[in-house]
């Protein structure tokens, strides 16, 4: 049997791994000056989760954007990639102008809004996007997934804001929080249920507004904020 035939046969068999969630949790970005990068990502208002070192030869720092389930790490001897070579790192936002204003208020340079005519192109300094035409201004129809702004860290690692107001089918959302599967959502509800039970023990009564409490708990948990008690 040829390799091609093996691949075709494999493609016709049902997947046995669909019940196993595969969660993208960390993206590595290459930097030249660890402390400079740490100061930059702290200025963005991202949550710093870790700063670990082993002698002078290894150091790793982790930051998480607000509301993100995925973090970024950088450091010393963390990756062999060239500093600044990470491009096309998407940050999904519900309000592009609010996201831009937040960075500008923090003293971070960010591009004007832009959209694509046909395929999207970010410009000569941002070759990680494809296509041929980049048009100034947000998408006139404000279509979801259609408006962008870009910024870079001190090494030139390139980030994009993409405005998403209505998601394509296949994602489960709750209160602005996105779940990749029903398994994730069910697990979040179970954690909220346990925490709410402890809440009722502390308050000494039945909480008729349990649904609101659940929602607040889940959104805070996904955003990495302090949980209700």
CATH-assigned fold name of the largest domain? 2,3-Dihydroxybiphenyl 1,2-Dioxygenase, domain 1
CATH homology-level superfamily of the largest domain: 2,3-Dihydroxybiphenyl 1,2-Dioxygenase, domain 1
- What percent strand? 15-25%
Q: What class would the helix/strand composition place it in?
A: alpha+beta
CATH class of the largest domain: Alpha Beta
Listing every helix as H and every strand as E from the N terminus to the C terminus, the arrangement reads HEHEEEEHEEEEEEHH
Instruction: Report the sheet with the most strands, covering strand number, pairing sense and barrel closure.
Output: 4 strands, mixed
Report on the architecture of this protein.
- This protein is an alpha+beta fold.
- It has three domains: 56 residues, 2,3-Dihydroxybiphenyl 1,2-Dioxygenase, domain 1 (Roll), CATH 3.10.180.10; 82 residues, 2,3-Dihydroxybiphenyl 1,2-Dioxygenase, domain 1; 52 residues.
- 29% of the residues lie in helices and 23% in strands.
- The protein contains five helices and eleven strands; from the N terminus they run H-E-H-E-E-E-E-H-E-E-E-E-E-E-H-H.
- Strands 1-4-3-2 form a four-stranded mixed β-sheet, with helices on one face. A three-stranded mixed β-sheet has the order 5-9-8, covered by helices on one side.
- Helix 4 crosses helix 5.
- The protein is globular and about 55 Å long.
- The N and C termini lie far apart (61 Å).
- The N terminus is likely disordered.
Quick synopsis:
With 229 residues, the protein is an alpha+beta fold. Helix content is 29%, strand content 23%.
């Amino acid at each position: 049997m040829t390799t091609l035939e093996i691949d075709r046969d494999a493609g016709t068999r049902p997947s046995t791994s669909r019940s196993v969630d595969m969660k993208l949790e960390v993206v590595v970005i290459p930097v030249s000056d660890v402390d400079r990068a740490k100061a930059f990502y702290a200025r963005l208002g991202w949550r710093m989760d870790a700063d670990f070192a082993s002698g002078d030869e290894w150091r790793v720092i982790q930051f998480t954007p607000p509301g993100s389930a995925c973090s970024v790490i950088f450091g010393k001897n963390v990756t062999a990639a060239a500093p600044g070579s990470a491009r096309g790192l998407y940050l999904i936002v519900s309000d592009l102008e609010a996201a831009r204003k937040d960075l500008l208020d923090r003293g971070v340079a960010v591009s004007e809004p832009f959209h694509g005519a046909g395929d999207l192109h970010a410009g000569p300094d941002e070759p990680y996007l494809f296509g041929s035409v980049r048009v100034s201004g947000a998408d006139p129809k404000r279509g979801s997934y259609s408006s962008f702004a870009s910024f870079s860290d001190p090494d030139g690692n390139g980030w994009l804001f993409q405005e998403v107001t209505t998601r394509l089918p296949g994602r489960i959302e709750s209160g602005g929080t996105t779940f990749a599967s029903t398994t994730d959502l069910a697990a979040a509800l179970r954690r909220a249920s346990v925490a709410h039970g402890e809440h009722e023990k502390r308050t000494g009564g039945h909480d008729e507004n349990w649904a609101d409490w659940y929602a607040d708990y889940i959104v805070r948990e996904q955003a990495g904020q302090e949980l209700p008690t």
